[in-house]
Amino acid sequence: MTLQFLADGVVMGAMLGLGAIGVTLTYSILRFANFAHGEFITWGAYITLAITAAIAMLAGGTPTFGIFSFGWPILAAGMMAAMLTGALALALDAVLFSRLRQRGSAIVMVMASFGASLALRSFLEFLFTSKPAYFSRDIQMAVPLGMGVRVTPDQIFLVGVTLVIFIAMDRFMALSASGRAMRAVSENPTLARVAGIDVERVIRTTWLAGGALACAAGVMIGITLQIRPFMGFDFLLPLFAAAILGGIGSVQGAIVGGLIVGISEALAVQIVGADYRAAIAFVILIAVLLVRPAGLFGLRQ
To answer: Angle at CA 281, nearest 5°, toward 169 and 7?
Structure first.
């Protein structure tokens, strides 16, 4: 057995961690499991792909950054798509979840998120078909790091971007007024409202941040793997496993949970084969719920 699973697991964990931040914030502040979050990942990737294609038509091509398979068009498209995906999440809340939230039934919101997930995925498949798409079909040569570990330049870059986003998000939650308000609402929304915090504004910020981070995860998946309508759905269980393992409401926990799930899945591929990869996230999820339901960074209630 080589240590290649560590490199593969860290890359996968970075993608899971970004998506899990949105899951954990939504769950802690809105008090329901949003199963449509996986579709934000898919929509973010497809919106980025569409904007990249539009930029390529206007610029006469898609230049790349040296050894990387992508260039400034994808980065610019990704930033625009992050805002649009956040807007999509906000629109879904305005049309659906905000109406149900007034009735105070979490199970109804969970079931509604299932329906929203199906609708978003079907509409996306109608627009782009079910055929896989790619940001680039160029083949990259992996760089040897020693001890049998090889990674591509794209993977190194994307892990670095994840680290930057994680630090920025962590500082935002710890130091900014909006971040402190989000933590207050997460702890006790009623008390936060009495203290003068605009809870509805916090909810809007949560949807925007969750959608933007989901888009970032989708772009990473699209660059390293492929883009297809079911990509977000396939990542949904690992996302929830990472969020629960790290501790609901914890940004640090989401990243750590994502890394643990990603490395565990990569190790399982080497030991038992890829057919059982999807079961690993389920096993981790059940184990956490049985042993420490609050997660690694969560507080026991």
So the answer is: 65
